[in-house]
Structure formats: structure tokens, C-alpha cells
Amino acid sequence: MLNYIIRRVLYAIPILIGVNLITFTLFFVVNSPDDMARMQLGIKRVTPEAITKWKQERGYDKPLVFNDGEEGFAKFTHTIFFEKSAAMFAFRFGRADDGRDIAHEIKTRMMPSLAIALPVFLLGLAVYIVFALAMVFFRATYVDFWGVVLCVALMSISSLFYIIGGQFLISKLWHLVPISGYGDGPGAIKFLILPVIVGVISAAGANTRWYRTIFLEEMGKDYVRTARAKGLSENVVLLRHVLRNAMIPILTGAVVVIPLLFLGSLIVESFFGIPGLGSYTIEAINSQDFAVVRAMVFLGSLLYIVGLILTDISYTLVDPRIRLE
Question: Which residues of 103-135 are buried (b: 16+ CB within 10 A; e: fewer)?
């Protein structure tokens, strides 16, 4: 098992390096520091002196990957690539344009993002699987038919409708929870109820239909017919056999959500005023804060790769054949 984990980690390192190189190319080669300075200062009537000052303030006045003016290792370390890109592997993200430390902001804003994303993920996973199993149990009946119709209807509605509709109905009309904002400690729960409900409902249609398709595919396999031939009830077949064998595709789909558990939801956090990483990213994009955007891209890539590794490990727990290989 340990050798399996080590192999997966070693496979992930070149991927993360490749993503880092692509990000560096996009931010500093395709879009040069001079271009970034013009975008920040204004394309029209910007002087060369202003561009030079802007680059010096942010450390963008050095060579990209090789510094002829230095000696020894400084030829490689006193470069934009080493200070702005390679330093991210040590989680040194530098400072934002407003002077705040990016790493400190990430640590501070991670918990509000987790406070929303984790309940949405766990509660949503349980609700979607239960509904999908119910539709499969009553397959080819009115329960299944109207369940599919409801899923298609939920899929056809934009997530913005659920956000605005939930704010109007639950907060403004019924005054059950605050319409937006965030608090510290237990007081934050009242601000999280509505975003969690909206997050679960907005993704219910697509996820429930997907799980239903997975379960129906498993229902047609030989081991299910064998289990029925042995006299097992439909409940036992669904919960003990079908659900367990469907865990691999379920785990594969769950890996996509792992980065969102830390990075938060861009739309939900912005509309509900949650000071998480999602709203932090939106603010950085709007203000063209390239240092923050680079840090969030790197962090998202890292979390996605970690999710892939965790998914591979979870495969070995639900499928003994993978563990034997």
C-alpha cells in the first residue's frame, strides 16, 4: 500500500511542475510584465517611467529565467521564474497589489470557504445517492418517471435563479436567515444555512441523474442476477451490492469537488458576501491582481492533484482487485 501511494505521489510531481511552467508561460511570456503594467495603469497615455516603476514595485523588473548580471546560482535565483513561480512550491506567494500577504489571506479565507463547501459536498452526496437509489428501486414506475422529470427541470434552471430566488423567498420575504454576510464562531451558522441549501438544490438534478444512470448500469450485470437468484431482497441487492460496486465512478466524480472545498464557490460566495477564497479570486480578477490570480491557479492545481491521489487510494479501499495489482 505504501509503495502504491509513493508511486502516485511521484507521478503527480511532473504534472504539478508542468502546470507551473504553463502558468508561468501564460503570465510572463504570452502576457509580459510590460503588458500587465499597461493593463493596470491604463493602455492610453502611460509613460515608460510609470511602467518601470510598476515593475520595480512588484519585482517584475528582473530577467525571466536567466540573469546575466549575477554570479553563480544567483543567475537563476534572481529571476522572475524563481521568485514568482518556483517559490510557490514552498508556498511563498508574495504580496498582493494592496500590500497584503497572499499566504495569510489564503489561510484566513480558507475556513469560510470550507464552512460552505464541506456541508454542501457531504449533504449533497447523501441526498443525491438516496434519491437516485429510490428512483432505481421504483424504476419503470411513476416515481421514477416524475423523478427524472424533476431532475431535468432542476438541471434546466440556472444556479443564479436559485441564489436570487432563495434570497428573496427565505431571507427577504420570510426573514428566516440573513440575506448575506458572515460571522465568527457559532454565529456564522445562520449565514451558512441559505448558501448550503442553494448549493445542494442547484446541483441536485445533474448529480441525481448521473448516480441513477450508474446504479441502473450496475443493475443489469451478472452479479445482480446471481444475488437475486440466491433469494436476496431488492433492498439488500441495492445497498450491499449495487451501491458498493458503484463507488468507483462515484469517487471519480467526487475528486472534481475537492478543489472547491478549499477554493470555494465563486458565484455563491460573491452573492452571499462570504469572505472566502472564491470571492477573493473574483476580487483579484476584477482588480487585475495578477499575483493573487497566479497563486489561486497554482493552489487549485495542487488541490486537484491531491484529490486524484486520494481518489486512487480510495479505489484500493473499495475494490480489492486494485489493491492486489
Answer: eebbeebbebbbbbbebbbeebbebbbebbbbb
Helix pair 204-219, 102-137: axis angle to 10 deg: 50
- Determine if residue 86 is left, alpha or beta; phi over 0 gives left, psi from -120 to 50 gives alpha, anything else beta: alpha
- CB count in 10 Å sphere of residue 317: 12
Short-list 137, 141, 148, CA closest to 219: 137
Sign for the pseudo-dihedral over CA of 249, 300, 279, 293: negative
Summarised one tens digit per residue, pLDDT across range 127-152 is: 999 999 999 999 989 999 999 999 99
Taking the whole predicted model, whether its pTM rises above 0.85 is answered as no
Closest-CA residue to 117 (of 189, 193, 199): 199
CA distance 2 to 278: 35
- Confidence class for position 320, pLDDT limits 50, 70, 90: low
Asked if residue 300 lies in contact with residue 292, where contact means CB atoms within 8 angstroms, the answer is no
Domain boundaries, the chain: 2-90, 111-324
Each as own residue / partner, the long-range contacts of residues 221-224 (CB below 8 Å, 24 or more positions apart, any chain) are: 221/245
What pLDDT is attached to residue 173? 92
CA nearest neighbour of 261 among 159, 154, 124, 103? 124
Query: What does the longest C-alpha to C-alpha distance in the chain come to?
Result: 83
Helix (H) or strand (E) holding 245: helix 243-245
Cα separation, 187 vs 192, whole angstroms? 10
Query: What is the C-alpha to C-alpha distance for residues 113 and 268, in angstroms, rounded to an integer?
Result: 10
pLDDT at 54: 87
d(CA 167, CA 177): 9
**Is CATH 3.10.50.40 the right assignment for the domain spanning 111-324?**
no
